[in-house]
Write a structure and sequence with these properties.
Elements: H1 3-9, H2 50-62, E1 67-71, H3 74-82, E2 90-94, H4 99-108, E3 115-119, H5 124-130, E4 135-141, H6 153-163, E5 166-170, H7 175-178, E6 188-192, E7 206-210, H8 213-226, H9 232-242, H10 245-265, E8 271-273, H11 283-289, E9 296-300, H12 304-313, E10 318-319, E11 329-331, H13 343-348, E12 355-359, H14 365-380
Parallel strand pairs: 2-3, 2-4, 4-5, 5-6, 10-11
Antiparallel strand pairs: 1-7, 6-7, 8-9, 9-12, 11-12
The chain binds pyridoxal-5'-phosphate.
């Protein structure tokens, strides 16, 4: 089936007791058993919930996977993956990962005898050099936030196969509509469903997708044993939202590309970062492993003062953390989302005080362009 047909139907059937076309919100903590140990496959809602299962199956299909294991947040999903490891194991991780991912690895999991090396995974020789006999996992985010640097899925999968370690790709930025890492031989994909999957800025959630039965079995075990499960109402909202994922992603991309092209020519903008621009250093890799370029555009405005003026002048864009919702947002990474990254480290990757990240929403293109135009004019006056 095509992506849109799957997004609307996969994992769902009309409710057998009523015919309701939408999967009900099974707002229950337990399920009545006919006799001792005789039940309909549902015992206790941490372990199984029908609304959650429908959502997990739906996204598993969209990611070209076999199993989906849902969690209460993106970070709970990432934590569950790390909980598969043993004390003494080593993880190689992209150095420009989501700040919360860096924080949970460095401040929580390190305490349990795990070690982490943060390297530029866009350069496979650096990844290879960081792998030790203790390395069990390679964790990659591509494209990265907010610099939009890509890592080669094919090269990472090949290296991991040779070194016998597992691979994880955080695919939050592209969503399953534009990139399917499992197809490239990556073992697990993780999403913050808070972002594009849900897309309406009203749920925090996470999910892991895989084709491998052995990994799914471990993850379902951790989901139940550690218990960071999402509630049924949130699962329902995400399941409803994936029905329009393709429509939303196409609009996000159309608006982002129009803005990126406009900003590229604007004299007040020093540099634009968007993988869909032919000038992006990895534009060819982007075309090879993604079917689109997404809705995030970053730009260099030259100074903190300029960034502040721009962020204060926008009217349709809102100044807020997060991304991937239908509404357009502006973020100042150095002070907002990436404040925990040491300054030297930030500057090394180009994350300056003048950098602004735009999460381009699905409002009318002309309105977004006009808003950015007037904000840049206000910045210069
Ligand atoms: C937001 C985000 C996360 C964390 O997800 P939460 O749902 O906020 O816990 C992880 N990775 C990326 C790329 C994100 O943008």
């Amino acid at each position: 089936m095509g992506f849109q047909t799957d997004s609307i139907h996969a994992g769902q059937q009309p409710d057998p007791s009523t015919g309701a076309i939408m999967t009900p919100i099974f707002q229950t903590s337990t399920f009545v058993q006919e006799s001792i140990g005789k039940h309909k496959g549902y015992e206790y809602a941490r372990t199984q919930n029908p609304t959650r299962q429908a959502m997990e199956k739906n996204i598993a299909v969209l990611e070209k996977g076999k199993h989906g294991i849902a969690f209460a947040s993106g970070l709970a999903a990432i934590s569950a993956i790390i909980q598969m490891l043993e004390s003494g194991d080593h993880v190689v991780c992209s150095d420009n990962v989501y700040g919360g991912t860096y924080r949970v690895f460095e401040t929580l999991f390190k305490k349990f005898g795990l070690s982490f090396s943060f390297v530029d995974t866009s350069d496979i020789t650096r990844v290879e050099r960081a792998v030790t006999p203790q390395t069990r996992l390679i964790f990659v985010e591509t494209p990265t936030n907010p610099m939009l640097t890509l890592s080669s899925l094919e090269e990472i999968a090949a290296l991991a196969a040779e070194k016998k370690c597992l691979t994880v790709v955080d695919n939050t930025f592209m969503s399953p509509y534009f990139q399917n890492p499992l197809v490239f031989g990556i073992d697990m994909v993780v999403h913050s469903s808070t972002k594009y999957l849900n897309g309406h800025s009203d749920v925090v959630g996470g999910i892991v997708l895989t084709r491998r039965d052995d990994l799914a079995e471990k993850l379902f075990y951790i989901q139940n044993a550690a218990g960071a499960v999402p509630g049924p109402q949130d699962c329902f909202l995400i399941l409803r939202a994936t029905k329009t994922l393709a429509l939303r992603m196409r609009e996000h991309e159309k608006n982002a590309l129009a803005l990126a092209r406009y900003l590229e020519k604007h004299s007040a903008v020093e540099r634009v970062y968007y993988p869909g621009l032919p000038g992006h250093p990895q534009h060819d890799l982007a075309k090879k492993q993604m079917s689109g370029f997404g809705g995030i555009v970053s730009m260099e405005l030259g100074s903190l003062e300029n960034a502040r003026k721009f962020a204060e002048a926008v009217r349709i864009f809102s100044l807020a953390e997060s991304l991937g919702g239908v509404e357009s947002l502006v973020d100042h990474p150095a002070i907002m989302t990436h404040a925990s990254v040491p300054r030297g480290e930030r500057l090394r990757m180009g994350l300056t005080d003048g950098l602004i990240r735009l999460s381009v929403g699905v409002e009318d293109e002309e309105d977004l362009l006009a808003d950015v135009e007037q904000a840049l004019a206000a910045m210069r006056s």
